[in-house]
Design goal:
The chain is an alpha/beta fold. The protein has twelve helices and 28 strands. It starts with 5 loop residues before the first strand and ends in an 8-residue tail after the last strand.
Amino acid sequence: MAGRSTRIVIVGGGFGGVYTALELQRRLGRDRRVQVTIVSRDNFLLFTPMLHEVAASDLDVAHIVNPVRKLLPRVQFFDGDVQRIDLPRRAVVVSHGADAHTHELPYDHLVIALGSVTNFFGLPGLEERALTMKSLGDAIVLRNRMIALLEEADTECCAGVRERLLTFVVAGGGFAGVETAAAVNDFVREALRFYPNLAPPMIRTVLVHPEDVILPELSPSLGRYAERKLAARGMEVRARTKVTAVSDATVTLSDGTTLPASTVIWTAGTTPNPLVATLPCMKERGRVCVTTSLEVEGWPGVWALGDCALVPDGTSGRFHPPTAQHAIREGRCVARNIVAALRGGAKRPFAFRTIGHLASLGRRTGVAQILGVNFSGFIAWWLWRTIYLSKLPRLEKKVRVALDWTLDLVFSKDLVKFETATGMTISRADATHDTPAAAAIMSSSTPVPTDVAHG
């Protein structure tokens, strides 16, 4: 490696990848002999625990994202899609730009932090019609969908289909599903006072969960408490039930029930990024097998972490769960071990025990289990906001979120759709603003398809 920099390439801009880069920046940021590059299709770190609050208009869209270039001023950032990882040649092929041209990034050390993608399990109609809650675009699309359905249902011509328009089905009773369902229910019910033809009994929010009690990561008592709180707010919790099919107007459940519904939100399954399956390394359960020091077995200088890696727990003999709090600490561990490899130090095994879990149930209510102690109600909700606010990167974003939450105590939620639109144009020599037709054209707009919001 004499005569050139040591090249460290990180693929993935989620918690694992960004926190690996942050630790490398802290330890190696001023070392000109090392070049660190992070590759991601998004130029920001999304703070996913607060995603449902964007959908529910509690937080501004931009306040839960941190620009990578501001977080990592001494790390090179490449905005692109990873097309291929060539482990034998020690190179990553990345595409970017409007024409999707490719670049080849050689590496001496590679960190694989590709995360996971939504898995629809081949259920009929689900992939084509379901909304998800994994990206900022997902939250925007869900918010737009709720507002659009309220606007449509409020018109007299839609009186006969209001049940379908105002029924929201959320599949999956884990943290993402419960928090999303509670946020949807609160948003829609609070908005009703601005829609004179709609009433609370018309709103139906159904949470479908395949196990006996929702929030299985917590204790059964907290799960049952959460069910009671959600039911008290007019929600339906259907345990031991799954979504089996989705059509334009209905959702079919495993108990034989067919619900008239225009909206189904899928939070019930993920799978490692498809790129993982193309790698020639050892895999299990679709995830990359790594050592306790997070190095990919059989491939020196290649590391993996987060949702796409199967990380052994040296204490229990099992595997660490793919959660954000683990990914953050795995990133720091990988960075320390890379530095040790560069400087001849000893690699350390990854060791971490889950500190706790928190879930917001909306309306200043939550559930939490921290260091084995259960909390519920307002205290758990306060802990949720306090702890996640402290974990949100950068003081600027902390202040903005705190202001949003404070203003939310005083003002009602916004009912503005964030659909991208461009002004209508015309190219005719005889067109003037003086004619009624031209004036009408120039004052209208052409909507861009909602999938633009997904980026």
